[in-house]
Amino acid sequence: MSQDNGAHVEDGATTDASLASRAKNPKKSGPKWWLISLIAVIVAVAVVIGVTLAFGGKKDDKSASSSNQYADTVTIGLKLAPTNLDIRNTAGSALDQILIGNVYEGIVARDSKNQVAPAIASSWETSKDGLTYTFHLNKNMTFFNGDKLDAEDVAWSINELIAKGYHDADALAAVSKVEAKDADTAVITLKTPNSNLLWTLTGRAGLVFDKDAKYDLKTQAVGSGPYTVAKFVENSSITLKANEKYWGKNKAKTPTVVVKYLADDNAAVNALKSGDVQVLAPITENLAEPFKSDSAKYTVKAGNGTDKFVLGFNNASGSKLADKRIRQAIRYAINHKELIASRGGADKALGGPIPSLDPGYEDLTNLYPYDQNKAKSLMAEAGYSTDKPLQLTLTYANIYGTELGDQLRSQLKPIGIDLKVNVVEFSTWLQDVYTNHTFDISLVDHNESHDFASWTDPTYYFGYDNKNVTKLYNEGVAATSDKERDAKFAAAAKLVSEDAPADWLFNYRITTATAKGVEGFPFDLNQTVLPLYNVTYTK
């Protein structure tokens, strides 16, 4: 493969550590990264579905450069605050969002379309058998402390991650060795082909660290990116300063970027109105309305992402939903257009487990179109009606509010389902649903990209087990061309959707509001990939 392969939160948890510490007795069957991943998902969900936030910070600096009139400082409001800066050990998407591509760089990067792009490596090639990846590095690279960055740092960083089991090490299980062929060439050899490798390397697994630097990973960061961390205030803010020694073409256009974290909805909105922040990401469509109506002062735009609001069914034997007819009836009974409209209309319908920005995506919304008559018929076959309803419970975390649960209860009642909505603390959800699998239906925002593997793990909380799906997915992973990989993943996803082990309510799209004069802020994928080098503000 070539380099071209490439809601409302009432009381959302705001730190990765607080969520992780609330997990009790995680299941030991199945890969341990699922728990970490899901916690990251839930955390990000509080990000995603909640409104935006941000506050504080300096107003635009009047001492902007006379040559370009850009303000010296841009203040950005984000939702999820990291508890520390240790990106090797601390779970949660907040660290990826602010550090990857800004402070730390990877051997490859991810662009706004979720495709693999050059970074520390300017180009690469893969052997025909898919087992050897040769990366050609840029020349004259340095870390911000002045240390040289070369292939030795690349090899050390990835080997260290694997050897010490740092975050995302499991994703590199197929790696046999990583070597520095010479100062400008790094070679990764695999035991078995893995078509996900390059994309995996755009995240934590591919980050390159200074093997000679000594610093406190929790409070400091020594990277090679366009920005350095000048100040970190736990759960509050991060101040980024332009890296004067940056080696690459993506030099920071704004000398200082202040990222403010605030969980209070009203404070976030007021911060943008007052000019304390120039950007809010995310903000709910409903709260964004006043800014939309004042287009002379603000820009509001929804961007694409990989968040999938999954209405997961308990597929395990003995469950009420082990009957496929009931699962199918639920899918036919859900009016997705109505759900999306109630949330402001920015989200997109999603008929299966793969979002549009991931490999193998296919529009599967026609598999289960809204059809109450068909839903009633299936329920009748299963022995239920409005006179003899099926009792089911929907259990989900309170970070999502109550609106979706209320709507689903109303939509399922006419087909003979009496849905009890049980909104709980996240810790309760994690214990009862995720760990113990004691639930009928659940609701979670799975925001991870390339996370289809959860549908191949029967120990995962869905309890879904289809050997043909697993076979197709594994064949896709082992594919040595993008075309073959995408075809296998698409076929696997279609099988999953047809089996109806869940309903994909919608693909959540993140809405961002900016003050007029802000340019270069990314709208797509900005809860996971947030490059800030191009951001400027002109008052």
TrEMBL record:
Keyword rRNA processing part of the UniProt annotation: no
Annotated stretches, region: Disordered: 1-29
Gene Ontology terms for molecular function: peptide transmembrane transporter activity
Keywords carried by this UniProt record: Membrane, Signal, Transmembrane, Transmembrane helix
Transmembrane segments: 33-55
DNA damage found in the keyword field: no
CDD domains named in the record: PBP2_NikA_DppA_OppA_like_6
GO cellular component, one term: ATP-binding cassette (ABC) transporter complex
Domain (Solute-binding protein family) ranges: 116-449
Gene Ontology BP annotations: peptide transport
Official protein name in the record: ABC transporter substrate-binding protein
The organism's taxonomic lineage, starting at the top: Bacteria, Bacillati, Actinomycetota, Actinomycetes, Bifidobacteriales
Cross-referenced PANTHER family: D,D-DIPEPTIDE-BINDING PERIPLASMIC PROTEIN DDPA-RELATED, PERIPLASMIC BINDING COMPONENT OF ABC TRANSPORTER
